[in-house]
Design a protein that fits this description.
The complex is a heterodimer.
Chain A (H helix, E strand, L loop, with lengths): L3 H13 L3 H32 L1 H24 L5 H6 L2 H7 L2 E7 L5 E7 L7 E6 L11 E6 L3 E6 L4 E5 L16 E3 L14 E6 L8 E6 L3 E6 L3 H7 L13 E7 L4 E6 L3 E6 L8 E2 L9 E7 L4 E6 L4 E4 L15 E2 L3 H6 L3 E7 L4 E6 L3 E6 H7 L8 E7 L5
Parallel strand pairs in A: 3-7
Antiparallel strand pairs in A: 1-2, 1-4, 3-21, 5-6, 5-8, 9-10, 9-11, 10-14, 12-13, 12-15, 13-18, 16-17, 16-19, 20-21, 20-22
Chain B lengths: L2 E7 L3 E8 L2 E4 L12 E2 L2 E4 L4 E3 H12 L6 E13 L2 E12 L4 E4 L2 H6 L9 E4 L2 E4 H20 L3 E8 L7 H17 L4 E6 H10 L6 E8 L4 E8 L6 E8 L3 H13 L12 H9 L12 H12 L4 H12 L3 H14 L5 E6 L6 E6 H7 L1 H18 L8 E5 L6 H11 L4 E3 L5 H11 L2
Parallel strand pairs in B: 1-12, 12-13, 14-19, 19-20
Antiparallel strand pairs in B: 1-2, 2-3, 2-4, 5-6, 5-9, 7-8, 10-11, 14-15, 15-16, 17-18
Helix pairs in contact in B: 3-4, 5-14, 6-10, 8-9
Chain lengths: 402, 446
């Protein structure tokens, strides 16, 4: 604060010691420069306040925070705010709170949903049989198991996204070995693909507020990471980008991770690449060099102490323990083979992989449309599962809060 | 046989030196400091009772404390008994303790030593669950200095010559107690033998090394805590004579306090806060370096919030709140001290604090500073003249006035010495190291 008395004292100092004038002048000029710059900032802030832009920005931030809170509450089973709760039917919510959903989906956007209780699961049981074309346009249906309280992001090959709660997708009952396997009728299309685009994947995103990055992975081994702070604009614009470098490649997977996480990429021809999330590029880069006939079948984040379970189409289980998963020293690597070249030549292919612990479960989709449930410890014990024809897809299944 | 070193335990800064082969070796005790031979007399004790000194203590304190969380829990402090309506009542008394506090920073340990004696003296302090007497705190500091010095020299140090002010206290009994406390602390710190030398005499011993003929010298040792004076005959060690010594408990920290009181309190609301006694009490505590860190209590936060909500100087009280609750006291005192030091070489300086949302800026001139310490200047001049009179010498009989210590660089005092003795007689000795160098010389003589 500058008062007339102080100014008088500064003048006295200069009168006493003229040499002080220069330093006083310099110090005051510095301060004036600082204050002028701050004044400009305040004026700009004032303009933003008066024009309502600042209010809009804060409203948008509040909306985003509310959205994240909503996601967290759904994930952890907390109570929803009134407005959000009204959007969901009470009965549906009550049913879904303690269940796990197994989702089978294809590139045309069809999503089959089965609900399982989170307890009393029976290993080697049949869950049901999917109806219809399981390999449309040569691309097999994929599987995802997620808590029914999850929020799903539908990611299309055009880069478009749409968010839907799992519970909003109609389901067809569940009967893990409680009677005859149920025939699942034609699946609904919760989000219709637009002309020229296909459904690339479904990604559970309720952990978004806890994640640091999105990692977008393409079929041919390209990826980029996106700061989770961008989530607000991504969700608001319904667009995340394709994440590919050139046309034949397509968007494949979206994962959420933190800086300390590891990302595992598994290809159809049996190559595995493990990467540290902190080293992933922000621009799209080819991180896994795949052969012309090869493409990714799984891209997943490995939690600490989780093993990797890789499933082949003949039902053979390949287990990679946590300590044996080595982080690739550099990007653009071919990865490590998970089975021998002779097996590859014989036609063995990978259909899916999952990050699992001993107490987890796995779901397999067979060529005849049957969905079967398996305890991971049984799979590790026997090293294989009974296959009806061949397997099309495999996914891990964890308890909702695990 | 181990080494004998000189140890200057100063109010603001300390140092250790060894005299060997006719050379004074100042030990770079604090590698993190700008001047490694000078270690700040600061002790930081963490919650797990680890202790750190000097620049390391400062850095750790900043890392642990600035912007940290607090959680106050009531803790029983004792009980009080009171009488009312012909009955006695006993009631428990609780104090609020910040259970997340990571450590305690202790400054001005030497001043604590000066205040340690007497019934109302400063006996020690509670650090978490342990009570530290002043001697315990000194022991920790001296032991750390000893360890560092031994690591540098690669030999054991068995004996130390410590500097002491001419007067720890005006009362002889308290003065004796203070020296004894410091001696015991040194012995507990691991020195087998601890002796003392007056600080101005130590500075004289160092100065004497540069003399070629005997002369009468007045040592003006003006540091962070005290002004110490000595009038001596120097130049021939066999005929060295101390004519008189004197001192006063006025020094750098008093000037800092004067600056805060006269110039900076309005930034925190003084003059705008009128009818809130609890806030006025807070404001008047700001210059007290011991009490300021203790102000961060829930009650004070409540009083400040209430006043801010009521529109009583909200911006200034927000500054006060930030100073107290962001643990910025140490930064604040440092800024004041830094500006004061700058005024020794230039006519104006800025006292600036820009942390924790505070934007404090005060242009401060040398003239203002001299006005603010006018009272102290007069007291110091009086002590100087009294000491000179006690020596039986007149100003004209003094051949050299040797000034040492950080505060001796203040131009007003250089002018004062020049006015009394003649400017050509005033010589500057090594500001921070002449005392410790003299102590090392003394130590080498056994």
């Amino acid at each position: 604060m500058i008062t007339p008395d102080k100014i008088e004292e500064w003048i006295q100092e200069v009168a006493e010691r003229p040499d002080s004038a220069a330093s006083i002048l310099r110090l005051i000029a510095n301060r004036l420069g600082e204050l002028a710059s701050r004044n400009e900032e305040l004026l700009e802030e004032n303009i933003l306040l008066r024009s309502g832009k600042r209010v809009e920005e804060y409203e948008s931030r509040i909306a985003h925070l509310e959205y994240q809170l909503d996601l967290l509450k759904r994930h952890f089973g907390g109570e929803l705010p009134e407005a959000a709760a009204a959007a969901l039917e009470d009965a549906q919510l009550a049913t879904s709170q303690a269940t796990i959903s197994v989702l089978g989906y294809d590139i045309h956007g069809r999503v089959y949903r089965l609900e399982l209780p989170s307890e009393d699961l029976v290993s080697e049981s049949a869950l049901g049989r999917l109806d219809g074309e399981l390999i449309p346009d040569g691309v097999p249906a994929r599987l995802l198991a997620a808590p029914s309280l999850e929020e799903l992001l539908f990611i299309f090959t055009s880069g478009r996204i749409a968010a839907r709660p799992v519970s909003s997708i109609p389901f067809y009952g569940s009967s893990p070995d409680r009677g005859a396997p149920e025939e699942v009728p034609a699946a609904p299309i919760p989000v219709e693909p637009r002309l020229g685009e296909m459904l690339a994947c479904l990604a559970p995103v309720s952990r978004l507020p806890l994640a640091q990055f999105f990692v977008q992975i393409s079929r041919k081994g390209c990826l980029k990471k996106i700061n989770a702070a961008m989530a607000q604009s991504i969700l608001a614009n319904h667009y995340i980008g394709t994440g590919i470098k050139s046309a034949p490649d397509q968007t494949f997977e979206l994962a959420l991770c933190g800086n300390a996480d590891r990302l595992a990429l598994v290809s159809r021809e049996g190559y595995l690449l493990c990467l540290s999330a902190k080293d992933l590029p922000f621009a799209v880069e080819e991180v896994m060099r795949l052969g012309n006939s090869d493409h990714l079948v799984a891209a997943l984040v490995l939690p600490p102490r989780a093993s990797l379970l890789i499933m082949t189409q003949i039902g053979k289980v390949i287990h990679r323990a946590d300590e044996s998963l080595e982080i690739a020293p550099s990007l653009r690597s071919k990865g490590q083979p998970v089975f021998s070249p002779s097996r590859r030549e014989q036609g063995v292919r990978v259909v899916g992989a999952a990050a699992v612990n001993e107490d987890d479960w796995g779901v397999a989709l067979h060529r005849d449309g049957q969905l079967s449930l398996h305890a991971v410890k049984d799979l590790f014990g026997s090293g294989a599962l009974d296959v009806h024809g061949e397997l099309l897809a495999f996914a891990g299944l964890r308890a909702p809060l695990s | 046989m181990g080494l004998r070193v000189g140890l200057d335990f100063g109010t603001s800064n300390s140092g250790v030196a060894l005299y060997r082969d006719d050379q004074v070796q100042l030990l770079p005790i604090d590698a993190d400091s700008v001047l490694p031979e000078v270690v700040k007399s600061i002790l930081y004790i963490t919650r797990d009772y680890q202790h750190y000194i000097g620049q390391q203590a400062v850095q750790l304190y900043y890392r642990h404390n600035v912007g940290r969380l607090r959680r106050y829990v009531p803790k029983k402090a004792g009980e009080i008994e009171y009488r009312g309506a012909d009955m006695y009542y006993v009631r428990d008394v609780y104090v609020y303790v910040d259970e997340l506090q990571p450590g305690r920073l202790l400054q001005y340990l030497k001043t604590a030593l000066r205040r340690a004696g007497g019934p109302a003296g400063y006996a020690g302090t509670q650090v978490f669950e342990r009570y530290y007497y002043v001697a315990d705190l000194l022991q920790l500091f001296l032991a750390a200095l000893k360890r560092r010095a031994e690591a540098l020299l690669g030999e054991e140090i068995t004996a130390v010559t410590l500097g002491r002010p001419v007067k720890f206290s005006d009362q002889p009994e308290l003065d004796r107690q203070a020296e004894e406390t410091l001696r015991q602390a040194a012995l507990q710190a691991g020195f087998a033998d601890a002796s003392f030398e007056l600080e101005p005499v130590a500075a004289a011993l160092y100065y004497e090394k540069s003399l070629h003929q005997p002369q009468n010298a007045l040592i003006f040792d003006f540091g962070g805590g005290t002004l110490d004076l000595a009038v001596l005959r120097l130049g021939d060690p066999r005929q060295r004579q101390i004519y008189a010594s004197g001192g006063v408990g006025i020094a750098g920290s008093d000037f800092d306090r004067a600056i805060i009181q006269r110039r900076l309190l309005p930034h925190f609301g003084l003059g705008r806060v009128i009818q809130q006694p609890e806030l006025l009490e807070l404001l008047h505590t700001i210059p007290d370096w011991i009490a300021l860190p203790e102000l961060s209590t829930p009650q004070n936060r409540y009083h400040l919030e209430q006043a801010i909500q009521a529109g009583v100087a909200p911006a200034r009280l927000r500054t006060l709140q930030s100073l107290i609750f962001n643990d910025l006291a140490f930064s604040f005192y440092n800024q004041v001290e830094a500006a004061k030091m700058l005024l020794s070489s230039q006519g104006a300086a800025v006292i600036e604090l820009k942390e924790g949302g505070i934007d404090l800026w005060e242009l401060y001139t040398r003239l203002q500073f001299e006005q603010d310490i006018q009272e102290h200047q007069e007291a110091i001049e009086q002590v100087l003249l009294d000491t000179l009179a006690a020596s039986g010498l007149r100003p004209g009989q003094i051949d050299a006035v040797v000034k040492t210590g950080g505060s001796s660089n203040i131009p007003a005092f250089t002018r004062m010495l020049g006015r009394i003795f003649g400017a050509q007689k005033v010589v500057a000795s090594n500001t921070f190291s002449s005392v410790v160098a003299g102590l090392a010389i003394k130590a080498s003589q056994g």
